[in-house]
Design a protein that fits this description.
There is one protein chain. With about 140 residues, this protein is α+β, with helices and mostly antiparallel strands. It folds into two domains: about 40 residues, no CATH class; about 90 residues, Alpha-Beta Complex (Outer Surface Protein A, domain 3), CATH 3.90.930. The chain is about 35% helix and about 20% strand. The strands form three sheets. The chain has a three-stranded antiparallel beta sheet with strand order 4-5-6. Strands 1-2 form a two-stranded antiparallel sheet. Strand 5 and strand 6 form a beta hairpin. The longest helix has 17 residues. It is globular, with a radius of gyration of 19 Å. The two termini are about 25 Å apart.
Amino acid sequence: MWRRSAASRDGKSCLSISELPLDFDRRGALVSSHRLEALRALVSVEAEAYRRNAQVEEAPLSGELMLFDPARAQFFVLNRTMACIWRRCDGAQGRDRLLAGLQEEFAGVEVEAATADLQRALDELLALGLVTTTAP
């Protein structure tokens, strides 16, 4: 349901979303799952996106991923889960989209487990300076 909100900061009125039906659009038409995902992506505004550190080099290593940070002269080895997250940190994806990608890559993993793994991975990648945050 769309509703007109109070005036925005610049004094103009704007529309905001109070509720988004799960299977019908605002005209009452049935929404396919692909269209629904596109609508959710348009509606969801994430506060930050994640970007790989451009200075860090990568190379595949027996199903894992090896990273080299030349600024610190350090190597890192990422397991398959961490590598999946690393590769998706393109500066355009926030936490929700990263989580969706992780669930897509590892079908059958419970949402709670995927969310916890993502949080731990992002915390570690950020702390090591391998990933930074940016506005999407």
